[in-house]
Design brief:
By secondary structure, the protein is mainly alpha-helical. The chain is 67% helix and 4% strand. Helix 1 packs antiparallel against helix 2 (43-71) and helix 4 packs antiparallel against helix 7 (222-261). The chain crosses the membrane at residues 6-32, 53-73, 85-108, 134-157, 186-207, 239-260, 266-287.
Length: 292
């Protein structure tokens, strides 16, 4: 399949999503015209809905970015860098960055206080908007684990950094046989990927700072405003931890495939099981309900 066909398919998919969203919105408007007037929605509930809308838009853009990374980068741009396939390895981080930047743009759309008379609560705000404990901790855990995976893979890789090998020697130290397999996430892959992971974590911290500095929501009590900000920060952390986890899972699965081909079956199974555990934990951290 050519790159042009892939791009056409992705564009059509995006247009389909936009069209369905427009039809759904139109249906809601038409249905609401003949319905009796609904009771007024509390201001904090409207703020929560705004956070949900921003998160849905960001998730959609992140998914589109992930689809592009999964289909185009491993094919059309496999040789775009000195290390073949490096952009594909960075795909989850790039998709995570798209998600976070979309959330950042959403934060800039919050209305500022208007009118000649304005009220404000004197509340001390932290440098970073507090996120849910699970999502915030998983961001740090995945970053640390990613560093460990990159370090171990870099140390056991062959000198070319793109393969892993084994050798057999006799009692006198004479080489009897050797074998190598790749691709393998050695230093040429691991270092740029780790730099990308660190950059994504820093980007998510910046957005959480942006959340804590945005204007207070009008007609919302201080404690409710804090909960709305925490909801926004948690959504940022949830997406980032998922992107980091997918990155690590990709490294482990690639490593497991190469290890299996050089008959390091036990180590390969260990890497595969670790990848499965990370994937399950990341999914739980992503779909766990967040209560504002």
């Amino acid at each position: 399949m050519s790159v042009f066909v892939l791009l056409v398919v992705l564009v059509l998919a995006v247009l389909l999503v936009v069209a369905l969203a427009a039809l759904a919105a139109a249906a809601v408007v038409v249905a609401g015209r003949g319905a009796p007037a609904a009771p007024p929605v509390p201001a904090w509930r409207r703020a929560v809905r705004r956070v949900d809308t921003i998160s849905l838009v960001a998730a959609a853009t992140g998914i589109v970015g992930a689809l592009v990374a999964a289909t185009v980068l491993p094919t059309a741009f496999v040789s775009a860098t000195a290390t073949p396939g490096l952009l594909a390895a960075l795909g989850p981080v790039l998709a995570g960055a798209v998600y976070v930047l979309t959330l950042a743009l959403g934060e800039l759309t919050w209305p500022r206080p208007q009118g000649q008379r304005r009220e404000a609560f004197l509340v001390r705000r932290p440098a970073l908007a507090p996120a849910g404990h699970l999502a915030a901790r998983l961001v740090l855990v995945w970053l640390a684990l990613g560093a460990v995976v990159v370090l171990v893979a870099g140390l056991i890789a062959e000198p070319d950094g793109r393969s892993v090998g084994t050798s057999t020697v006799d009692s006198g130290g004479q080489l009897l046989s050797s074998s190598a397999a790749g691709p393998f996430p050695g230093w040429p892959y691991g270092v740029p990927v780790l730099v990308g992971m660190v950059a994504l974590v820093l980007l998510h911290l910046w957005v959480r700072h942006l959340i804590t500095r945005r204007p207070a929501v009008a007609e919302v009590a201080p404690e409710e405003d804090v909960r709305v900000r925490a909801l926004s920060a948690t959504r940022v952390a949830q997406g980032v931890q998922l992107a980091l986890a997918v990155t690590i899972v990709g490294l482990l699965l690639v490593a497991a495939g190469a290890l299996a081909r050089v008959d390091l079956t036990v180590v390969a199974w260990g890497a595969g099981l670790l990848a499965a555990g990370i994937a399950v934990t990341a999914v739980v951290g992503t779909v766990r309900p967040v209560r504002p």
